[in-house]
Structure formats: structure tokens, C-alpha cells
Amino acid sequence: MSPSLEPIVFECEATELQSIPVTIGGVKYVLKEPDADATAKYESAKHGSVRMNEETGKPERLEGLGDIKPLLVSWCLFEMTEQGPKRVHEMVIRKWKSDIVNRLYDAARDMGGLVDRLSLEDMIKERDKLNREIERQQAAKDEPKNSLSSTADTLE
């Protein structure tokens, strides 16, 4: 039995993008929610930065991942001018302090629902990986204490 299909209805307000007023150095901007075009470009850029190992088929390295933040911000940030909103070019954004760009990026991602969500299986793998790293660092931290006490025992 196939699932029943119900009508999908969007209210007029639901099609309007959210926006947040932003002021940087006295200049007024508006940060808009990523539209479908910006979302598609963001996802393509994010996934295009992953380089796969040809033999294993697993992700091997990331290239250009750092470009994603200024790109997404440039697709969503508009300067408020007398002629109307004007998109801020990526090269302008790249000259700003990273904490400004990071806050704008996080806000744009949150508004657009672009926050990465891990599956339960991926979260378990990530947890196990972190637990192994914690154990490794704890062992390394405890190791110098043990080696010093054993050295002191042999000197007596």
C-alpha cells in the first residue's frame, strides 16, 4: 500500500526569506536566509571539496573547504544603499575579521537549515573515535609520571 499523498500548502509568508539586520563599522546590511539557488551552490561547494581515495572509495582529504564560509555569506549579505539592497562581493567579505564572517556564516546556515545533521550510526562512530582519542591523550598524559617514578626507583 502506498502512502497517502496529502496536499502541500505554503502560506504566503512561508515563501518570504527571513532576514536579520546587520551593522558593521556603521554600515547597514541585511543578512537574508539562503534561497534555493544559494543552498544548491553551498551544497555543491561543500561536497565538491571532498576528495575521495580511488582505491578505498573513502574520503581522503578536503580541498577548498575554507572557501565555503565567505561564499555563503556573499550569497546572503546585502548592503543597504540608497538604490536598494546590493549584494556584498565575496572579495570584500574575505577582507573582514574571521569572527565577523563566522558569525554571519553561522546565522545564514541556521536560517537556511543548512546545519549538518549526522545519522545515529555516524554519531556513534564519531563518539567512538573521540573516546579513542581521549584514551590516547590520557595515556600520553599519564606516561611521563610513570616513567619518572620508574627512573627514580632505579637511581636509589
What does this structure look like?
The strands form two sheets. The protein has a four-stranded antiparallel β-sheet with strand order 1-2-5-6. Strands 3-4 form a two-stranded antiparallel ribbon. The longest helix is centred in the last third of the chain and has 36 residues, at 120-155. It has helices at residues 36-48, 68-76, 90-93, 98-112, 120-155; strands spanning 19-24, 27-32, 50-52, 59-62, 77-81, 84-87. It starts with 18 loop residues before the first strand and ends with a helix. The mean pLDDT is 80. With 156 residues, it is an alpha+beta fold. The radius of gyration is 24 Å and the shape is extended. It folds into two domains: 15-116, Phage tail assembly chaperone gp13-like (rbstp2171), CATH 3.30.2220; 118-156.
Topology, please?
Layout: E1 19-24, E2 27-32, H1 36-48, E3 50-52, E4 59-62, H2 68-76, E5 77-81, E6 84-87, H3 90-93, H4 98-112, H5 120-155
Antiparallel strand pairs: 1-2, 2-5, 3-4, 5-6
